């Protein structure tokens, strides 16, 4: 097979603007040279989804509290941390941390992420690791939980045994932006 035939097979689907100079000159002479570099390029701009990377207009939130007392009674509950999204804003919860000071083998405490006081599937009743230690701190990153328009996100801590009292806490962090900014960038989600 001749080199010219091989070249035709290999380069037949390539944009004529980036092949031979003769074809490029033909395009420029027809007025196509007036297009912007982005329009002439074969490269496409990659937009990552808003749960991976913030929009330029996004704002961060980071709420934590590590000094909430959970009473020594079965089914006692406390909400150590919460965050209310501003009006007309949606967001993404990216980090969740749980904390307990001086747990023992008798500690039976669960943590639940809630949106508008409803549990988030997969993040309800997360059990504190059992063991005797000075403190337990467990962090979960890259959650990618979508927070709907104008919602309240919080963490509910429950004592499932009549032990304690326990000093517990939690952390929630992520970002939010207006729903219009997200729709403008990605369309309706």
C-alpha geometry: elongated
Distance between the termini: 52 Å
SS element count, helices: 4
Largest sheet: 5 strands, antiparallel
CATH topology of the largest domain: Jelly Rolls
CATH class of the largest domain: Mainly Beta
Number of domains: 2
The portion of residues assigned to helices is 10-25%
Total E-strand runs: 9
Structural class category: alpha+beta
The parts where pLDDT drops under 50 for at least 5 residues are 9-20, 22-30
Roughly what is the average pLDDT, rounded to an integer? 84
- Architecture of the largest domain, according to CATH? Sandwich
- Topology as a string of helices (H) and strands (E): HHHEEEEEEEEEH
Rg is 27 Å
Task: Give the DSSP E fraction (strand runs of 2 or more residues).
Answer: 35-45%
Please specify the SSE layout and strand pairing.
Blueprint: H1 3-10, H2 21-29, H3 37-40, E1 59-70, E2 76-84, E3 89-101, E4 109-115, E5 118-119, E6 126-127, E7 135-147, E8 152-159, E9 166-178, H4 179-186
Antiparallel strand pairs: 1-9, 2-8, 3-7, 3-9, 4-5, 4-6, 4-8
Description:
By secondary structure, this protein is of the alpha+beta class. The protein has two domains: about 5-40, no CATH class; about 60-185, Jelly Rolls. About 15% of the residues lie in helices and about 40% in strands. The chain is built from four helices and nine strands, in the order H-H-H-E-E-E-E-E-E-E-E-E-H. Strands 2, 4, 5, 6 and 8 form a five-stranded antiparallel sheet that branches. It has a four-stranded antiparallel sheet with strand order 1-9-3-7. Strand 4 and strand 5 (about 120) form a beta hairpin. The longest helix is centred in the first third of the chain and has 9 residues, at about 20-30. The relative contact order is 0.25. Mean pLDDT is about 85; it is low at about 10-20 and about 20-30.
């Amino acid at each position: 097979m001749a080199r010219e035939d091989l070249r035709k097979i290999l380069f037949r689907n390539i944009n004529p603007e980036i092949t031979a100079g003769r074809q490029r000159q033909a395009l420029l002479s027809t007025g196509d040279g007036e297009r912007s570099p982005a329009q002439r390029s074969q490269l496409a701009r990659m937009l990552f989804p808003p749960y991976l990377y913030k929009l330029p207009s996004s704002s961060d939130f980071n709420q934590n509290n590590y000094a909430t007392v959970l009473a020594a009674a079965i089914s006692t509950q406390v909400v150590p941390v919460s965050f209310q999204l501003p009006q007309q804003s949606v967001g993404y919860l990216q980090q969740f941390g749980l904390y307990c000071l001086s747990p023992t083998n008798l500690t039976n405490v669960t943590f639940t992420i809630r949106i508008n006081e409803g549990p988030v599937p997969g993040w309800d009743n997360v059990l504190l690791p059992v063991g005797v230690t000075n403190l337990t701190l467990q962090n979960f990153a890259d959650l990618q939980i979508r927070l709907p328009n104008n919602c309240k996100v919080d963490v509910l801590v429950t004592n499932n045994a009549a032990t304690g009292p326990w000093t517990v806490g939690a952390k929630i962090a992520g970002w939010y932006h207006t729903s219009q900014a997200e729709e403008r960038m990605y369309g309706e989600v």
